[in-house]
Amino acid sequence: MDTAMQPDVLVIDDLQKHFGGLEIMRGVDLTIKHGERHALVGPNGAGKSTLFNLISGEHRPSGGQIYLRGQRISGLKPEQISRRGLTRSFQITNVFSRMSAFENIRIGVMARHGIRFNLYRRIKPMRAINDEAHALLQQVRLDHRADNLASDLTYSEQRALEIGMTLATGAEVILLDEPTAGMSRDETAYMVELIRQVTEGKTLMMVEHDMSVVFGLCDRISVLVYGRILATGSPEEIRSNQEVQSAYLGEEEEH
Ligand SMILES: Nc1ncnc2c1ncn2[C@@H]1O[C@H](COP(=O)(O)OP(=O)(O)OP(=O)(O)O)[C@@H](O)[C@H]1O
What is the ipTM of this complex? Predict the structure, then answer.
């Protein structure tokens, strides 16, 4: 679908963040459209993770607003934002290492259904929860690893598990922070296909340094430089943008 026709799911309006006297977000305006895969790129220290932390509620903005489907979410706590349908993964793997892959996913499913551990013994709802957790494991291609401790999974399997946990919350808007970081070329290709499949019909915003992943997977790209959006556009528009070339892409190619 032409992204111009899609409604805005996430609207970021003049977002600012200071850490003490340090201005990190300097008035970010950005809209993410329903169903698109949107990459956030930019040089190290541009503020990409900070922007994710602001959207998902880990940080409170110093100024400006964030709206999810027209409702203000800036100032809400991460769990409140997650309940409204937006969730994120972190740059560093964030799984429960002493639990099995299956249990990791099940925790997310249980949280979504508001089931606490003291209700564990009610068999019927647990069966439905288990079925859902198995289906999610299958979606992230880890069903053969269901009973393995998360700490025994390979690095890329752990990142896939983390994506499964993100899906388990039932979120329609998913933020992934560098999902292919530290992966080999084959693992990256595998992860890109996995992300493509599991985000079908959902809205994805991802921070990614690997431009081949960005250009191959995303419908639109925003370039964040020094706490401001320098440009937003299709992969072709971003590739041919002179300002982006000199501020970011040229620098990436040199490295
Ligand atoms: N809690 C904090 N307190 C103070 N400064 C912070 C804090 N979090 C981030 N910063 C600073 O904000 C700036 C942006 O950092 P951020 O991690 O958002 O950049 P990034 O674009 O994600 O970088 P990278 O690509 O290297 O991950 C950096 O200068 C960082 O030192």
Answer: 0.95
